[in-house]
Specification:
The strands form three sheets. A five-stranded parallel β-sheet has the order 4-3-7-8-9, sandwiched between helices. A three-stranded parallel β-sheet has the order 1-2-10, with helices on one face. It has a two-stranded antiparallel ribbon with strand order 5-6. The protein is an alpha/beta fold. Helix content is about 40%, strand content about 25%.
């Protein structure tokens, strides 16, 4: 009953929801552009072999991101691999990742015969765990070595990392602002049947 009631109200969902909303408009990061931007950054840094690392396999925005990262890498003539783990635990909405899942992902990566040097990690929460684990496994990180890039620009996760990885900023302020604008528009146009989805 609550869901039926809410679905009749003007609604704008923000960010990349873990489950796609069934009603209302949406303002979210452009996952395809994020993957492409990350790949171009690493390619421009001279990396010829790229990898996508993800502890949350199955989360659809990460799948879109990984796809565009892969396509951009392959179109540029680089090699590409992907290592993912199924999300290990969930407490309510938020994912959590165990040390075991991080260790398993890193073990797969370091066992690669031709180990990539340009790595994209799916988000900042993950890179805060994956980068130290890579360093503990003997992977040298920094310019001219293995370089990492992640997504979101969540500074509390990045502050602990040395060296600091590159990051794709998803512009949460712009997403919030655009969400308010869309909600005001929807209040003025309640009878427009189409759902409008905006990617920032």
């Amino acid at each position: 009953p609550v869901r039926d009631y809410l679905s009749k109200l003007p609604t704008v969902w923000l960010l990349r929801n873990r489950r796609r909303p069934d009603w209302g408009d949406q303002v979210m990061p452009d996952a395809y552009d994020i993957g492409e931007s990350a790949a171009k950054y690493l390619l421009n840094r001279g990396h010829k072999s790229l990898a996508f690392l993800n502890l949350d396999k199955g989360f659809w925005p990460f799948q879109v991101m990984a796809h565009s990262f892969e396509v951009t890498a392959l179109e540029a003539g680089a090699t590409y691999i992907k290592h993912e783990q199924v999300r290990s635990e969930t407490q309510g909405y938020w994912p959590t990742h165990t040390r075991e899942s991080v260790a398993s992902l890193v073990k797969k990566f370091v066992s690669e015969k031709h180990r990539p040097t340009g790595l994209m990690v799916a988000d900042d929460m993950q890179i805060a765990m994956i980068q130290p684990a890579l360093q503990e496994a003997g992977v040298e990180i920094g310019p001219g070595k293995t370089e990492l890039i992640s997504c979101n620009n969540e500074k509390p996760y990045l502050l602990i990392l040395n060296p600091r990885p590159a990051v794709v900023d998803i512009r949460v302020e712009a997403i919030g602002r655009r969400g308010v604008e869309q909600l005001l528009w929807r209040l003025e146009h309640p009878n427009v049947p189409e759902r409008l989805i905006t990617a920032i």
